[in-house]
Design goal:
Blueprint lengths: L8 E4 L24 H10 L3 E7 L1 H4 L5 H15 L8 E5 L22 H10 L7 E4 L2 H10 L2 E5 L4 H4 L9 E3 L2 H11 L5
Parallel strand pairs: 1-2, 1-4, 2-3, 4-5, 5-6
């Protein structure tokens, strides 16, 4: 497959980027969008980007909730996006933790951000050109996963972003207020400021 047939994607962290950060979120009734996030996702879709959520969910490893409960929350998120004309193309989650995991979930895996495993898997499964794609999140681990996968990384100041921004330099990531501003930046850079 040549570069012309590969697709562009925006990889999004979930907690603190799309939705308000709540420790170990898994119940739909606790889910709350960050203002402007659904509209921002809709704009990415209109511009032709794949939107892929990549999320560390160590609450699974710790036994707080199950993979099925995470998937149910993602189904709920998808339904909540629909009225905005927005959708996520795929969800990838890492249920592992290297120290705090129970059973097979205690793993020093390649999918836990800041490693690039989820992004690389998504790229292979969805024919994504990582060099023309972006990673947006609120933690250094998101920035690092994007960098290691070959994407351009953006750090939002929502969620843990204000604290995390002090740990990176301008060469590591573009720092923006929130997902809406990240999308403004991406679309401007791509010359299609919708």
């Amino acid at each position: 497959m040549n570069d012309q047939t590969l697709r562009r994607a925006v990889f999004l962290d979930r907690d603190g980027t799309i939705n308000v950060e709540k420790d170990y979120l898994f119940r739909p009734e606790d889910f709350e969008f960050i203002p402007g996030a659904p509209e921002a996702i809709a704009r990415l879709k209109q511009a032709g980007f794949l939107v892929i959520v990549v999320t560390n969910q160590s609450g699974v490893a710790r036994g707080y909730f199950s993979v099925d409960e995470v998937r149910a929350l993602h189904d709920f998120l998808q339904k909540e996006l629909a009225p905005f004309g927005a959708a996520v193309d795929a969800f990838y989650l890492c249920p592992h933790h290297p120290e705090q995991g129970v059973g097979s979930y205690k793993s020093d895996c390649d999918c836990r951000k800041g490693r690039p495993g989820m992004l690389l898997r998504a790229a292979a499964e969805h024919a994504i050109d990582l060099r023309r794609s972006f990673m947006v999140g609120d933690k250094v681990a998101d920035v690092e996963a994007g960098r290691r996968a070959g994407c351009r990384s953006l750090l939002v100041l929502t969620g843990y972003g204000e604290t995390e921004a002090t740990k990176i330099g301008p060469e590591d990531a573009v720092v923006v207020a929130d997902l809406a501003q990240a999308v403004d930046y991406i679309l401007h850079l791509e010359g299609m400021n919708l």
